[in-house]
Structure formats: structure tokens, C-alpha cells
């Protein structure tokens, strides 16, 4: 499980991105890069990290299910993810 502070920090980044989204779009449209560079760093969407909704892990994140591979395997083995079956050939 990821530290709670890391998860909270990422949520603050998401809120900052949402707050400045319209302003960033306007500045980019006008190609005003000087004003764009004056915005907070965390206003950039590329600074937000995808994290597992269950464990908070950021590595091995599966976007389709929004969980990490470890949690995915546990839930799939328990049959808790609809439509996912263990492959066999």
C-alpha cells in the first residue's frame, strides 16, 4: 500500500490541474508561453500520476480497470472482475 501522503499529494495535483485547465487552454491557444510558465508546476496534467484505486501503487497500472497488476490478479482469481477469466490453452 502506498503512503497516504503520496495519494493525497496526487489528489491535490488533480485538483490543481482541474482548477487551471481553462486558463491553460486559453494561454496555449494564444501561444502565450511566458504567462503559461508563470502558472504553478502542478497545473500541468503530465504531473498527475495514475495510481491504483485499491492499493495506491503507481507502477504496473492497468488503465482499463484503474488498478495495479497485483490487485488485478487477486480480484480476477477471486472472480470479482466481470468478464475476466484465467486463460488456458
UniProtKB/TrEMBL annotation:
Annotated keywords:
Ribonucleoprotein, Ribosomal protein, RNA-binding, rRNA-binding
InterPro entries per UniProt: Ribosomal_uS14, Ribosomal_uS14_bac/plastid, Ribosomal_uS14_CS, Ribosomal_uS14_sf
**Record carries keyword Ribonucleoprotein:** yes
GO biological process annotation, one example:
translation
Any one Gene Ontology MF annotation carried by this entry is: structural constituent of ribosome
Per its UniProt record, what PROSITE patterns does this chain match? RIBOSOMAL_S14
Which domain of life does this protein belong to? Answer: Bacteria
Which Gene Ontology CC terms are recorded? Answer: cytoplasm; small ribosomal subunit
Q: Which family does it belong to?
A: Belongs to the universal ribosomal protein uS14 family.
Q: What does this protein do?
A: Binds 16S rRNA, required for the assembly of 30S particles and may also be responsible for determining the conformation of the 16S rRNA at the A site.
Q: How does it assemble?
A: Part of the 30S ribosomal subunit. Contacts proteins S3 and S10.
Record-linked PANTHER family: 30S RIBOSOMAL PROTEIN S14 (PTHR19836), SMALL RIBOSOMAL SUBUNIT PROTEIN US14M (PTHR19836:SF19)
State the protein's name. Small ribosomal subunit protein uS14
Amino acid at each position: 500500500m502506498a503512503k497516504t501522503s503520496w495519494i493525497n499529494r496526487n489528489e491535490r495535483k488533480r485538483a490543481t490541474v482541474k482548477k487551471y485547465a481553462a486558463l491553460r487552454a486559453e494561454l496555449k491557444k494564444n501561444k502565450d508561453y511566458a504567462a503559461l510558465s508563470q502558472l504553478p508546476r502542478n497545473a500541468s496534467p503530465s504531473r498527475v500520476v495514475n495510481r491504483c484505486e485499491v492499493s495506491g501503487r503507481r507502477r504496473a497500472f492497468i488503465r482499463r480497470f484503474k488498478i495495479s497488476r497485483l490487485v488485478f490478479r487477486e480480484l480476477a482469481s477471486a472472480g470479482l472482475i466481470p468478464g475476466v477469466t484465467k486463460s488456458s490453452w
